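Q: What changes when S-adenosylmethionine is included in the input?
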Amino acid sequence: MLREQALRQATRTLEAAGIDTPALDARLLLQQALGVSHASLIASAQAEMNPSQLNAFNTLITRRAAREPVSRILGSREFHGLNFTLAPDTLDPRADTETLVTAALTLAGGQQALRILDLGTGSGAIIVSLLHALPSAEGTATDISQGALDAARANAIMNGVSDRLELVQSDWFAQLHGKFDLIVSNPPYIPDQQVENLSPEVRLHDPHLALKGGPDGLAAYRVITQAAPAHLKPSGHMLFEIGQGQERDVAALLAASGFTNPTAMPSQQADLAGIIRVIVGRFPG
Ligand SMILES: C[S@@+](CC[C@H](N)C(=O)[O-])C[C@H]1O[C@@H](n2cnc3c(N)ncnc32)[C@H](O)[C@@H]1O
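A: The predicted holo structure follows.
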């Protein structure tokens, strides 16, 4: 079978399985099965596939048809221009979360030598991206999951920032000492009872520890906002990613803990779908 024929057939299989982007996914998985770039695949669309290539491709398509995300099948994902390895214990970092990284970099302004804390680091996507963009900054990242911390370490090494990143297994702030200029967090924020309604890609493949935010989705925000002031330098900032419609509640929690004028970050306030994703509070000290 020719490569382009295999691609068409796989696209139809994924379409029938209800995949939103069947042609794109089939193409990415064919590249993976063949070990070739997009450009090389275009140039070799008429090449014959040998049986082992066809077999490898069919295996990947079967996994995708069973709703395993492409990033999980490939084992990695691009985030903020960097490559991140995924593990079963890490959330698959979302493009939406790049909004938080952009907001933090805007807030950092020209300052370089910042101490940054990332709570619930998962794959390390946020803190590794920040340290990569701010070569004089130092970071600490926590997660309650050791598997996530191992993946974050690997990603910090792969992206050349591991010498400036400390990783701590901790229940939010429990094992942390010291004060930071900037605290960032994308905590679990989905109300527990809604997790079962998520797409199979999320429900079956993202760790539930990374998703479940308690009965109203706000459990982690309550704990973090209460403890954050003790870990911020005067005029330090707390930045949260939030779920859809949580801006008022999270802003109220920040205000109750003494943060001044908690607000959606101007110009970075909407993610790719136009939903407010980032709330920032300044701690007066
Ligand atoms: C929504 S995921 C975010 C992961 C990553 N920061 C990202 O944006 O892709 C939330 C993370 O918080 C971690 N987590 C859940 N409960 C925690 C707790 N009590 N203390 C520390 N981390 C926790 C999860 O293991 C998960 O890695």
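Observations recorded in class: The chain has a mean pLDDT of 95.
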